[in-house]
Amino acid sequence: MSLPPVTPQRPLPGNFIQTPAPSRATASQPPVFGASGSAIQQNGGPVGPAPSQSQSQVNGVGGSSSATLASRAARTVNEMLAVDARYPDLDTYIIQGISSDYDISTSPSGAMAPFQRMKTYALPDKIFEQYNQAQVHTMMGLFAELHHAWLSIDNALYLWDYTAPDPQLIGFEEQPNSIMSVKLVKPREGVFIKEITHMIVVATTSDILLIGLATEKAASGVVTVRLYQTKMQASIKGIDATCVAGSDKTGRIFFAGRSSNDVYELTYQQEEKWFANRCGRVNHTSKGLTSVMPTITFGTRGPPEAVTQIIVDDTRNLVYTLSNQSTIRVFHMATSSTLNLVITRTLSNVISNVMHMVRNSELFRPGVGIVSISPISAREASRLNLMATTNTGCRIFLSATSGTYFSTDSTSAPSSMQVHHVKFPPSEHKSRAGSPKRTPSPNRIYGQNQLVDTNSRYLTGTQSSARFAPGFFFDLFNQGNNTMDNLFISAPDTGRIAGRSDTLQGAKFIETGMTLSISGIAQDIGLVTAEFSAASTPQGFGNELAVQFDKPTTEIAVLTHTGVHTIRRRRMVDIFATLLKQHKINDESLESAVNSFVRFYGRAETIATTLAVTCGQALDVSTDGARVGSLTDPEVVAAARKVFITQGGKAIVNENYALNRGESAVDTVRPSPRHEGMALYIGRLVRSVWKAPILQETATPTGGLTVNPTVPLEKLRDVQRDLTNLQEFLDQNKSFIEGLAGPEALGRVGSKQEEMALQGEHQALSSLVKLIADVIEGMAFVLVLFDNRVDEIILSLSDQARQAVRQLTFETLFTSTQGKELAKELVKAIVNRNIAAGSNVETVAEALRRKCGTFCSADDVVVFKAQEMLKKAEEAGKDTETGRRLLNESLRLFEKVAGSLRMEVLRQGIEAYVKMQFWAGSIELVLEVAKQVDRANRAGSWVKDGSPTDDPRKELYEQRKACYDLIHNIITEVDKATSAQNIPDTQLSIAQRRRSEAYSIIDNSSDELFQMNLYDWYLAQGWPDRLLEIKSPFVVSYLQHKSLEDVLHADLLWKYYTHYARYFEAATVQLQLAKSGFNLGLNARIEYLARAKANAGTKTGADSFRGLNGLSSSMGRSRQGRQEIIREINDLLELANLQEDLLSRLLRDRRLTKDKRPEIMKDLNGPIKTLDELYHQYVDQASYEDLALVIYQIGDYRNLPHVAATWESLIERDQFEQVQIYNEQAADSVQIAQPWERVGERIRTMGAKLQLSEVAFAIQVVLPLAAKYYVDQVLKGDGVLGHNRQARMPPQEWVPALFADLSVPFETMVVVLEGLFYGNEAPWNDRRNRGIVGAWIVYVVQRWFSDSLANGAAGELVFGGEENAMGVLQTLKNVEGANVLTPVTTEESRLLRARIEGALR
């Protein structure tokens, strides 16, 4: 079956089946302006979006593919309920202006007729007998909500149940005056006994009195009434009260008469008071004398203005009156006893407002009047307050405001009232078949290209009208027939209003209507059923579609002088079933009818309705109208099944969304309208229970507890039955339903896109099928729960579980893990209660499993058996053979269901095991549960990945951790029980054996995550020695992992290595500690390096080290690797020592300010810094030349000019500082070192420290600087201080002797000194200075010669060889030949040459 395409409101490229799209991406692009994709793409939806359109469905209902079916279905149902709740309020579609939109059913029995005539109940013969005896006055009316009618004849009042086949008359004849009016009202609370639910207000020509009325409703629905004499009456002589109204909320009663427009109140109370009788009257309109005297008019023409109708709006605390001059007055009930007139609107005021909206309407010409008014409650609309009906059939909607705003606050009185909207009668050519057509007047709605017929006289002659929520309009009109009235009925077209609510034009005030001819003249009209309400707020209030399966259908009774006519509102499902019934299953007209239905109400709504028809929800009235039954015609059901299968539409893949979000195409499939319709139907079935708690607790007067269901159990059974019907229908037809057909459906797809769409559809429909099963089973569980003593079951729960059960809703029970866990708690309580009562565990559990298997599975039965075994073991005793056998049997059963064992059950079992010293079994059970909880070890991978916060694996880790915490408790109890205090040896030996078994299971566990958790717990308890005693590879991996974050674990790791003679690994850890970023002081790092140096140099004596448990060590064992580690340790240790020296120097430096000291301490007393950091940040800035030279040495810095400059600065600083010290302390003190002594000591110290490094202690640099210092400072007196400077001068050979004492090679010194001697540079170009250098050469050669003679072996040549010796001799000759030596030195040189030459011979 195919439907013709519908023209959309605006072109959307690529969204039409017939429109070629440029590419796949463009073809699947979502609508730009949010128009209903399902309506357009599925070829036949309404112009606007379907009511259930939501963003989540546009982007794919599924969301994440990992979402569970239950949560997905719950989200879908919640979306459908939210869509229904967004049904537009009255103010949204009854906008300011005029309208006349009707779809009129020309036949009362037509398929689309909004109402259906039911049975007409004839007046009983006894009524006619009494009527024939009337003398003065008769009246008739309805107490429709009680299924009763009444008749007053003169002074007598008679009531009868008009639904009874032979009703009995209940008469009230105890007063003598003619009855003027009768009204049924609600009494004020606390005045009468609780049996009196209503009062009958009877107004006579003399008095107004109250009759108590008690009702009792039988299971069959028959209502019986009893009358009570209240003896409450007040005099109203001269008022002739013809209209009465009561407030259901406060019990106040208002009345007015035909002689004036005054409004009175009948006051009544339980007892008389000083200034008030039990019953009285108050005039709220006229004050003073006129309030107690009848109104007398003189010289006026025509009847006086009088009130003809009073109505009360309890939601706004307002009272409205209508006078015989069509004047509307508004009164405000500011307090419980006042009634203030706040607004008066005359007919001319009203018509003037109307004329601003429409001109030249024949329906508002002179002679028009208002015949009825009806209130619009604040629950239904926030703006609209009142509907007034004219005698021409126009409905005028008025809104009242407080100042400049629409007030919904019942405590504030409105100050003005305006006409908001005018609804004209339907056009005569639409309403009467065969009548001549009239041309609509040219009145156009502002802003819309739509004509409104403002001159239709179809309802001219309107006598009265009534409006019932959510907008049912009943208009009684008579156009000259004195024996029969006509009844025009209209109602909002809920489906079309909802379908247009999201369009650009918004919802329209569209109504469906029909006309009925009723036999007789109408006397009264009343609402039989409870007032309609789909929500407690204006939005969603009028959604009849949402409650069509949840609440009784609205029924209205109309009383004429021939009988009571009952009329029933037809639901959408009833209309559609009748539509199908009127067409044969193969009739071509069926397709056209269904297409029209889809076009009006959307494909999703159509699917939901067809499901309702197939599941037996449709109702129809029997031929005689006496009863309403299910429409189960096989042909109708078959036609609905065909529509469901063929009109379901197709799922769509939103490829653009998938590409933008990077998600799988399956996850972005927007399911078909079939899925949406199914979700709509399911949501509407469960709407009344979905958010409701499953139970409510009530305290009894004696302090006990009563637990009752919040939803009647019969209602639960009805919903369960409806869902079961739906489940059976889907199961029987799944092979024909795309998305439920199974894998064979994939063979029918033609492209990858179709395959993805089918997969997405399957996921969506499967989630709904799963939800249906869950709801059915959940309701079965609730029914089972209330079949037991639920109060005892609730009291047996823990406080936490009891509080959770109080808050448990049906939605949570059906769709969440939490709900199912709470249900299992309740199941356990049910089982325990039955066990306590002596019932067999297996019998009770099996019965529960059959009814609600999800909440009592086969695993639960095993758990109950295990618990029974455990209980028997406790009775047998912990040390008996039977007790141990039962313990092992219970352990076997628990392990069998370890994967589904709940934590509470596990905890209780463990507590019992520990109490009986079944420690090994308890630990084994906990480890098995932890293993089954996370068989894929995802928690372990989560820990290894750094434990990310927002990760689903974290929950698995928490579950396993909860298990491990139980083992911690077991270990604590084991250690406590095996302590030797006051325990006999025999018992202690048994306990020790059981302790050994327990620790054996712990140590041999292969659960790495458990071992990691256990080690954490050991350390938290302050038991690090336990780790050192455990021979397990898990200890090493644990400490290695933890050592990256915590220094204590790293400390424990190297201790563990050294404990098992793994020194090289210990050295590696210590090295890493020294290099780490932990909060360690510099001394601690140096200590780690020292220990690492010692451990790295320690050999185990074995070529191949065998590690723990026979495993070879994985650390590098090669000599090269060891040497690299040792080298790194030495380098780092050298750097650390330098840093320590620097820190010590800085802390002693007087230049350092106090505020800088902590900063430097924090920076240097921590991680070992690099040479660059030490040099540039501290050494260079502080001018610590000696440390700079050490840095040159460590860093192999070979920039000799830079090194020379540093040495020069160092010598100058020592000279300066020593002079300063000398001057400050004692001018002639011989105990203070001379500057030259300090410089010499510095050279000597640095030479030893730098080990004569060719980098930082290059002889060619240091020796010339020392020589220069000697000639420039010492010889000139700056390097010698005091009075007797000559005595304090150093010896002339001080410089070469200084370097010779440092073991500087003599050959090197000779070469350097020769360079000075021959360099001819200042200061060496001076004769005296050259002579000094020449003397130093002679001195060095002399010491070299003596040293070679003393240390040389026999036969070896002096100076290392003849060539060297000849060079030395030549050097001496050259020095002598320069004539710069003193005579003494020259003689020494000659003698030295002679000795050398002699040695060479």
TrEMBL record:
Residues 16-29 have a biased composition (Polar residues). It is a peripheral membrane protein. It is found in: Nucleus membrane; Nucleus, Nuclear pore complex. Keywords: Membrane, mRNA transport, Nuclear pore complex, Nucleus, Protein transport, Translocation, Transport. Residues 52-65 have a biased composition (Low complexity). Residues 1-65, 424-444 are annotated as: Disordered. Residues 1-11 have a biased composition (Pro residues). Residues 672-1348 form the Nucleoporin Nup133/Nup155-like C-terminal domain. Residues 115-565 form the Nucleoporin Nup133/Nup155-like N-terminal domain. GO terms for molecular function: structural constituent of nuclear pore. Its main location: nucleus. The keyword Transmembrane helix does not apply. Pfam families: Nucleoporin_C, Nucleoporin_N. One of its GO terms (biological process) is mRNA transport. It comes from the Eukaryota. One of its GO terms (cellular component) is nuclear membrane. Belongs to the non-repetitive/WGA-negative nucleoporin family. This is Nuclear pore complex protein.
